[in-house]
Amino acid sequence: MKDHLPWYATPETCCPTCKINFGQKHFLEKHNEETHNNNQSKNSLDKFWVDFMFCLLLKLIQILKLENFENLFKFVNTDTRFQCCKGAVFQIEDKLWGKKFLKAKFPGEEMSDSPYPVTNAASLLHWKILSILIDLTNCVDLLIKIYKKYVVWIIGSSLVYWSKSRAIDLRIGNLEFDQDFVEICWNGIRGMKWESFLETVEFCKSKFPNPDFIIIHLGSNDIKFSCSKKLLTKMQGDLEYIRKHFQVYNIIFSELLCRLTWRGLRWEEGEKQRNLVNDGMRSFLGKDNCIQHPRIIRKSYLFRDDGVHLSDIGNDYLLEDFRLKIKQNILF
Q1: Positive or negative torsion for Cα 28, 30, 31, 32
Q2: CB-based contacts of 106: which residues, under 8 Å, 6+ apart?
Q3: What is the domain-level CATH number for residue 267?
Q4: I need a surface site. Which of 29, 260, 277, 288 has the fewest CB within 10 A?
């Protein structure tokens, strides 16, 4: 049974940690006892399955180029390949899981007895409809691997140090991601300059699990001491080095922030150098691999009294920018 049934198909008999479906509850219970010492949480499984299936549907929408759920509903209801779903009904267990899914992702919507025609996202989870959708995308291997545990390093200077501190104060040190599916590894070093970047990556390699991608927020402290062209050359060379020698390919550059004041520089000159670095990194990595911070502008309430480090509000904006970029990379 477990060799033929997709591991995520029936949540009441699957182990999300091992990605195996055992087909019957007593086999799953025996597995949990022998392998996990009965530490598998029912609530964790519920949340895992809901989040997994939601991501699966988002991926189907993306692959089929349908843009949103409404278009996916119309597609299923009008495409002749789904005509075989007429007369299908939900089993009692399936309805319970469908209600959990709607409550978590589409609150207020009601579960129907029949999945076809499709009236809401829970209808798409019926095995007949879902199997046709997966077959149409012709990428079952990709879909099965959508939900994995992602490791994200966030490394950089004091701005990373203080943003981590703010996240801990808010009790969102993992940026509101479930620890079972995303692990955020922070390494912010106050006063850090780019010359310490490779050494810091070496340290992270020895301390943290290998990353799926790295967010780097570093370079502002170099503006005063190095012209932007020399700094860019060094930054780009080091990023190529870690791609080659550390096999880290998913690199995200968090663009340098504006400041109320640039120590030792006229404000206009500091901003000019900052923008040159950001433009150069955007060209080098591509816009999708950079994090822009449009809400962090030259306003006093976003900064501390030193005009360099962010206030609580500024840090909240920075954390949200990090979180949204991580979410974007996980889903798409």
Answers
A1: positive
A2: 120, 121, 122
A3: 3.40.50.1110
A4: 288
Q: Are residues 191 and 319 in the same domain?
A: yes
Q: Of 144, 172, 201, which closes a domain?
A: 144
* Main-chain dihedrals φ then ψ at residue 224, nearest 5 degrees: -70, -30
β-bridge pairing 20-21 and 150-156: unpaired
Together in a domain, 156 and 236: yes
The answer to whether the bond into 11 is cis (omega within 30° of 0) is: no
Tokens of 264: 């030792």
Domain, as residue range, for 69:
41-144
Contacts of 269 (CB under 8 A, 6+ apart): 262
Cβ atoms 45, 11 nearer than 8 A: yes
pTM of the full structure: 0.65
Q: Are 189 and 163 in contact (CB under 8 A)?
A: no
Q: Which of 257, 255, 254 is nearest to 307 (CA)?
A: 257
How many whole angstroms separate alpha carbon 132 and alpha carbon 125? 11
Residues 206-215: tens digit of each pLDDT = 999 999 899 9
Q: Is there a single domain that holds both residue 160 and residue 85?
A: no
Q: What are the structure tokens assigned to 88, written together?
A: 């299908």
Reported as a single tens digit per residue, the pLDDT across 178-205 is: 776 789 999 999 999 999 999 999 999 9
- Residue 83 CB neighbour total at 10 angstroms: 8
Q: Is 175 left (phi over 0), alpha (psi -120 to 50) or beta?
A: left
Residue 24 lies in a domain: no
Q: What is the C-alpha end-to-end distance of the chain, expressed in Å?
A: 31
Q: Are residues 62 and 136 in the same domain?
A: yes
118: left (phi over 0), alpha (psi -120 to 50) or beta: beta
d(CA 54, CA 69): 11
Residue 322 lies in a domain: yes
